């Protein structure tokens, strides 16, 4: 039996358009389906067809649960992994049907266009897929983008960028006054542009700049705004173009470590100028020693992450290394 899309009913409706805001109900349905797979009570020939034509057998060994948020273990989705590469998610089980990751990112609602605040559970799944599956596994160049973002917090302030019926990017914000992490009393001293991603096929079309602009506009009355440290080489270039176009923002944008006290801030425009004078051909450099140094520093930070967590200090969402999120065995 062909399982994909069988139960969808109305044409061209995608998960984000039809999923109720009921994470608990969703989890229970996924658990029940998983139990039926394990018990072997489903038709033995059930398969899911990938867009490549390849067929993946639907069996307990090819699915697993992922936690959508790093701080809410109960909110899980059931995913199907590629048998040839078990860290790559190919489909998600939603509303009694399997959907390709690309379909999870689609919408048939014409009102979903531009930057829209993440509010519903369905939108949180879209954010997770964009962040962990698309950026974390598929569209990250290990040579020059050694950065990935941890799964977001359930309380994360996020906006998804919708374009022509699909989610193509996102950015998240740490609000001034919000806690820097669980188990810490430290709060952000300024609003911080924390994680940002644009799908590869949509890059160099001004979308990164549009998101930075949206962030700056949202906090018109703030004297200082942060970007979480470390800022990637591409993002520095975005900042440069942005600050050339809007010179009035040059004094407001700071690269910050949480919580963003004065000693934890570096002015971005100044950094851009310094980089340009010390790295004459910055845009063509890959694996620059500066960036590798930054990643090493961050790796040091990640190695100390557990210690930081237990000692009550917070960290932002950035990380370096090979994999952001582990798929949980059930
Ligand atoms: C960083 C990122 C969000 C930029 O998104 P984007 O939509 O491509 O950015 P824009 O199109 O708005 O770029 C604006 C300008 O920045 C510069 N720029 C952007 N990416 C660049 C790159 N890789 N190399 C050199 N310059 C770049 C260019 O001057 C560009 O203008 P141009 O295309 O007219 O020359 C995107 O590359 C991305 O998602 N990267 C992976 C995740 C990441 O690094 N996030 C940032 C964490 S700090």
UniProtKB/TrEMBL annotation:
Superkingdom of the source species: Eukaryota
Protein name (record): Family with sequence similarity 169 member B
Native species: Equus caballus (Horse)
